[in-house]
Amino acid sequence: MSNECLTYTKVLTISSKKRFELIHITDEVIKAVRESGIKNGLVLVFVPHATAAVIANEYEHNIVQDYIEWVRRYVPQEGGWRHNMIDDNAHAHIASAIIGPSRTFPIVNGEVIRGTWQEIMVFELDGPRYRRKVVIQVVGCK
Predict the structure, then answer these.
(1) What are the tens digits of pLDDT across the range 50-70?
(2) Are 3 and 131 in contact (CB under 8 A)?
(3) Cα–Cα distance measured from residue 2 to residue 142, given in angstroms and rounded to the nearest whole number
(4) Within 13 Å of residue 87, how many CA atoms lie on the same side as its CB?
């Protein structure tokens, strides 16, 4: 058993096809943790974008539509937002700020700890976008 501690970083590039879209990345996060060789620690999933977010929840068609509907209802595109005079995407900035650009998960014995139905998703709020980066950083010990 090794007590060697380290940090491993992987950057994914994803794209979206719609204005609002949930992009499932759980498998890529699990793969990055395995590639890291880290057995116990944390994995951070972060989108370095002001109009996208990261969520952890069930990835099922109806609830995915509900997430989008929630944003449309509570942060409407035509909400009279001042930023829309510049870029017409204030709703995406506001929703991203509320939801958040990252999630952190524990790693125990090489496994990403999640609830039974928790999947990891990037929430596109201002698509379509050809290139979105997702930074996966694994920190811990082998």
Answers:
(1) 999 999 999 999 999 999 999
(2) no
(3) 6
(4) 9
Give the pair of three-digit tokens for residue 115: 């609830």
Q: What is the pTM of this model?
A: 0.94
| CATH code of residue 65 | 2.60.120.460
Q: Degrees (nearest 5) of the Cα angle 89, 100, 123?
A: 60
Tokens of 31: 């793969």
Give the residue numbers spanning the domain of 33. 5-141
pLDDT tens track for 83-134: 878 888 999 999 999 999 999 999 999 999 999 999 999 999 999 999 999 9
Which residues, at least 6 apart from 85, have a Cβ–Cβ distance to it below 8 Å?
Answer: none
Number of domains in the chain: 1
Distances (CA, A) of 33 to 23, 82, 90, 104: 19, 41, 34, 12
- The rounded distance, in Å, linking the Cα atoms of 6 and 142 is 8
> Which amino acid type is present at position 103?
R
